[in-house]
Amino acid sequence: MTIKIGDRLPQGELREFIEVETEGCALGPNKFNVADLVKGKKIAVFAVPGAYTPTCSAKHVPGYVQHAADFKNKGIDEIWCIAVNDPFVMGAWGRDQHAVGIVRMLSDGNADFTKSIGLDADFSKGGLGTRSQRYSMLIEDGVVKQLNVEEGGKFEVSDAETLLKQLT
User: Fold this and answer.
1) CATH number for the domain including 54?
2) Tell me, what's the pLDDT at 124?
3) Would residue 87 count as lying in a domain?
4) What does the pLDDT read at residue 20?
C-alpha cells in the first residue's frame, strides 16, 4: 500500500554519514529512528532513485540546496534527501553537491523504509535492483501533508519549486 496525504509515517530507520563528531553522533554512519527525527518538526522530504544519477545530481538536489533559505522562511525545520544507497555514498554525494549542513542526505540502504511507504521501484532491468521512486513530500510531526510522486522517468512534480508552492 502506498502512503498518502494524511497518513503517519511508519516506523523505520535511516542512516546518515556524519561529517563531524558531536555529542550523540559519532563520525561516520549513524542510525536514526524516523519517528524520533520527525517528532514536532516540519520536514521537506524528497527521494531519488540513486545518488550520482544524472537528473538527481543535475536538478533534484541542487534545487533543494538553492531554495533551502526559502524553505526555512516558510517554516521548514529540515530538508531530507532519501535514496536507496549506503550512507558512505550519500555522505560523499552530499559533499559533492555542497549539501552538507543544508540537506540531510539519508540512506535507506536496504530500501526498508522506502518499501514500508510503498514507493519502491524495480530497476533490475538496468542492473540497479530495488530503488526509490522519485517523489517529494511535506511531513508535519510525522504526518504526510503533501505528496508528489513522479511518473516513471519524469521530473515534473517533485522539484523544490513545486513543494515550495504547496507550503501554506
Assistant:
1) 3.40.30.10
2) 85
3) yes
4) 65
